[in-house]
Amino acid sequence: MPGPHPAVAATRVAVRRTLGGLPPSGPVLVACSGGADSLALAAATAFEAPRAGVSAGAVVVDHGLQEGSDRVAATAASACRGLGLDPVEVVRVEVEAPGGPGTGPEGAARRSRYAALLAAARRSEAVAVLVGHTRDDQAEQVLLGLARGSGARSLAGMPAGRPLGDGSPVLLLRPFLGVGRAQTAQACAAAGLEPWTDPHNEDPRFARVRARRALGLLEDELGPGLVAGLARSADLLRDDADALERVSASAYQDLGPPPWKVGALQALAPAVRRRLWRRVALAEGSPGTDLTGEHLRAVDALLTDWHGQGPVHLPGGVRARREGGLVHLGRP
Predict the structure, then answer these.
(1) What is the reported pTM?
(2) Which end of the chain has the smaller Cβ count within 10 Å, N or C?
(3) What is the pLDDT of residues 118-148, one digit of tens each?
């Protein structure tokens, strides 16, 4: 008897590995938009979860940003139920208007979506929410980081797993970071599933759409394998970034909260200092999507190129300044 289509097998193996790393303490949820990536994830999870002894449901987030979004959400929920996922919940969210420079509709929708996913996980006592980010999404993330001139943490892309919200025991898991977007489309076709095509995926107003087109052009010029290469680079850089984060966390414990003495900061390696600047700036409300390596270098210049300059303004109203042998970083 022939086995499953190779693309179906690839998605199932990816989910099997992810579920195998979870403690058997509760159900999981699949975040399903109805697109090919999340629909393939729903199908693979519905197949693998019972074999792993895990209960699996789904949550469909309706952002209400497009006409007929309620029908799209209902169709996605119906597909999840047809695959055997239970419970399946549709959640309508209100996406707040973006505020501040550099904050766009994508970021606002993401914040609303993740808040809804966390709330749904708590209602169902789920230990994890699975999302359908693919290897192509990872490559696009790395390319956007390169374009912004970001550091290793940004170029490390998306982790395979992280807490879904600060201090939350619920995990956000990405089983498909080693699976290509073409494979998820093939898996849906092989399973007889009809995914929804989001028109926003063709709208050049969104940075991710422009990055997707740029990757296509680069692959035409440089040859196939670029997406996989960028994803591999992200994996390698994540190990390096994690090691430097541990050193930075130790330095932060030694220094305490700012302000910090100039001499103590100058004794640290530049890579560690930049992580200190970023850690505090994020804690003070500077959005990570807007905080670039250029910002962090400008703060570091308060030590390396000090000539009495004024404060450095960071995204989100955060400021860094040097005064009386101390470096202050926070909101004025």
Answers:
(1) 0.83
(2) N
(3) 999 999 999 999 999 999 999 999 998 888 7
